[in-house]
């Protein structure tokens, strides 16, 4: 029977799965398949699993329960296998690699940081610093109808915005990665200038969170969004 695979753990992990609902319209019990030094946490499925809110919540609940008791190798939503035998075979064939990753993740959690910048404040900064941009802006505001003016001003502002945001993001990355054992920089989306995942040892968590708070206070006109501790999806 097909199974949905949530996570891989060491065989010594307690795998407290009581009371957890699996994914699917009619969730099956969440259970563990053991092979040598590893376990895979799975549940039976009889349908194609899609990223519905209920199933995403069930998937995350399993990860959080497992993570509260020890190191896990969390799988992204949607991983399935044909049956228990296929799962056992993969655990056996890839045991060394999985054990290496589990050792690297031992005692760690993922934290995610996103940052966006106040665009109005950035524009004021550019107009203050750039004589040419300020002159063009003053001429436009005074009623100069030359169609070349907004085009040139737009090019200057776009170039300055890109340069300054890239420089700011690089500086934020340097500040954050010094506090983590590993990191992954993701392409920012929307209005964000930064999206980064950090792997932090549990015994460094308090220092990391305090450093995050200090950074948010020190950097002007930047809005930070911090999340964590999370299962270390980005480092599997």
TrEMBL record:
Any idea which UniProt keywords this protein has? Answer: Gas vesicle
Q: Where in the cell is it found?
A: Gas vesicle
The primary location reported for this protein is other
One Pfam match, given by its short name, reads GvpL_GvpF
Q: Which residues cross the membrane?
A: none
Signal sequence coordinates: none
Asked if the record carries the keyword Calcium, the reply is no
Which PANTHER family does this entry report, sorted A to Z? PROTEIN GVPL 2
- Record's family? Belongs to the gas vesicle GvpF/GvpL family.
Query: What name appears for this protein in its UniProt entry?
Result: GvpL/GvpF family gas vesicle protein
């Amino acid at each position: 029977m097909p199974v949905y695979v949530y996570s891989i753990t060491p065989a010594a992990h307690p795998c407290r799965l009581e009371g957890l609902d699996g994914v699917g319209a009619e969730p099956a019990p969440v259970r563990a398949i053991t092979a040598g030094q590893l376990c895979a946490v799975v549940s039976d499925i009889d349908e194609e699993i899609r990223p519905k809110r209920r199933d995403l919540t069930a998937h995350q609940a399993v990860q959080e329960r497992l993570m509260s008791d020890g190191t896990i190798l969390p799988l992204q939503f949607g991983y399935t296998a044909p049956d228990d035998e296929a799962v056992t075979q993969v655990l056996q064939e890839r045991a060394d690699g999985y054990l290496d990753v589990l050792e690297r993740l031992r005692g760690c959690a993922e934290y995610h940081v996103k940052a966006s910048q106040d665009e109005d404040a950035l524009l004021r900064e550019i107009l203050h610093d750039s004589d040419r941009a300020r002159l063009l802006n003053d001429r436009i505001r005074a009623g100069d109808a030359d169609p070349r003016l907004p085009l040139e001003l737009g090019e200057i502002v776009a170039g300055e915005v890109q340069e300054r945001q890239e420089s700011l993001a690089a500086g934020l990355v340097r500040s954050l990665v010094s506090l983590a054992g590993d990191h992954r920089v993701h392409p920012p989306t929307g209005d964000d200038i930064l999206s980064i995942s950090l792997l932090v040892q549990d015994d460094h968590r308090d220092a990391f969170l305090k450093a995050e708070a200090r950074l948010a206070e020190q950097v002007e006109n930047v809005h930070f969004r911090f999340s964590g501790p999370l299962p270390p999806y980005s480092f599997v």
